[in-house]
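Notes from the 1:1 (GR / supervisor)

We went over the backlog. Supervisor wanted to see one worked example end to end before approving the batch request, so GR pasted a single chain during the call. The sequence is below; no edits were made to it. Supervisor asked that the structure be written out right there so they could see what the output format looks like.
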Amino acid sequence: MRASIGDRPEHYERLGLAPDRIQPWENGLRTGAADGTWEWWYCDAHLDDGSTLTVEFHTKPPYVSPASPLTPFVLLTLTLADGTRIDKAATLEPEAFRASAERCDVTIGINTFKGGPADGFAVHVEIEDVVADIRLTPEVGPWRPATGHVFFGADEEHYIAWLPVAARNAARVELTRDGHTVHLDGLGYHDHNWGNIAPRKVLDHWYWGRACMGDHTVVTLNFVAGEMYDNARVPALLVARSGEQLISAVGAGDVVSAEDDVMTHAHTAVPFAKRLRYQAVDASGRYTVTFGHRSDAFTLDFGRAGAYHRFLGEVAVEHTRDGHTDRVEGRTLWELLYFGSRPAAGGSEERMPLIGHQA
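Structure output shown during the call:
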């Protein structure tokens, strides 16, 4: 069995994609929003007061099987500067869902997620006593690593797709909670994910991370397939500066990825890397991105179904050319979603774990 990134001409032709152009419909509805598939639109904002806001619009809750029917689901997570976490979720009837196949324009009841890289994105969420209006103005354009589709199986019958539509945005947030409204600024991110197979059925784990350090922006992802797919790795790396892509690479042939200083997590018994490295080379030299673990920001243990970790730590970008290395450093959050085998730990609840980028 094989697992690989869709990067051949026949993949682009099958999907109707252009190798050098990302079109508005690619951020529209990409599935039937019904049985056998899942899809979500995600955004976050790291705000000047130290808080983080994430929003997810799903065709069905991420903890249910993709075989489930259309069940519109919205999740808002606010993590305050002191670590307090506030989750608000809404599950609605199928008729509450509308989405355009031509552009990003998603409605789930009173909640809306719409826009594009040229004019920005507007997200509105109302759940219980929380109302959030998020305006994202892109500073780094959309990025698609090859076709964005990782295919699984001898006939490539299963896939998981990922499109970072806006890797870096100026974020402006109006947030009302308990009748009190605040206006906050910060930096945001938006991506779009969909597929026709539950990630836990084809993946051992994945690492995802993003960071903004001055005018540098980094986005990384590393899919590690399950044993039946020979634990194949599909890493992806973007480094941008001042809105310009410095390097874009995907696949084990173009990105060298490493999980160093692997330890067993005390709470979940999941193996996790204290240091992640991504490295890619082009005509301008070698780029190395390193994430270093400092502490846990958030942990969810789903027993035999998997575990989710979000870590706090350092990130560094190095560019080496002609024997000289330039280095930029910062702090960021990054995540591990794990489905592989491990000793019994935590609870025994069996359900599909939350698979968005939780804060």
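Supervisor's comment: The helical segments are 9-15, 199-202.
Batch request approved.
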